[in-house]
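Hi U.,

Before I forget, here's the chain from the pilot set. I'm dumping it here mostly so it's searchable later in email.
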Amino acid sequence: MNRRNAMKIAAGAMIGGGAGLISLTQAFKPEPLPEKPAQKLEPGENATNWQYAQLDPTESGQIAYHQYSVGSCMYATFYGVASQIAAKLGEPYASFPFDMMKYGHGGVGGFGTLCGALNGGAALIGLFVSDKKTRDSMINDLFQWYENSQLPVFKPKKAVMNYTPASSVSHSTLCHASTANWGKASGFKIDSDERKERCRRLTGEVAAKVTTSLNAFFNHNYVTVYQNNENAGTCLTCHGEKGKLNNISGQMNCNSCHTKSLAHEVFGDIHYKYME
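Structure:
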């Protein structure tokens, strides 16, 4: 059967009614990517020469929460962890240029891209984990946790603002999408003090999460959690490196920016079936 005949069949199914169309699209649906099993990650030899020290995640979160007003989300997340190691181990951490992390505010210079708290968290993992695959797996876990969890739930010991933010699922690692989704859930504007308190607590949350992950990793107890992304995996079946289109590289939730058109829903799988 060629592509033209396939389109004729699809058109006939549309005329015949929704049930026939649904059956047809299911018949042409490509095989999904195989699921990846959970994997235990081991430290191995650290080529970065930056030593990690076991920390209290709660303390990391509290420090990050209060440092938010100093340098915003990325700086505060990084400082919440690295400053404690500097206090324990001294140099070279004591001379670390923490101010360099201030660029990450508002999704990098206010540009609305990667959430600064995640940027700081990924920087911490990058500092201590030298193996690329291991590092990427840990960052993937952190980012998918952020995408899929109701956040923030972090509670500061001494709150800057007498307000407990509503929690929401960001469905995205992007600052502008994450804050917009929270705004829909809470009813507050992006420039409100309430939104700032939400991001302040989210920063504490991420710092605590990264500390928990690094503690487990260097205690030889780290097992991957989010090795599969159902949303991205569906798209990557066709658009990823193993698909015919091979035009997308990524793991983030696609639906934060992209939605399927009616034409894609109806003809996408059929068209893909007969692509060269």
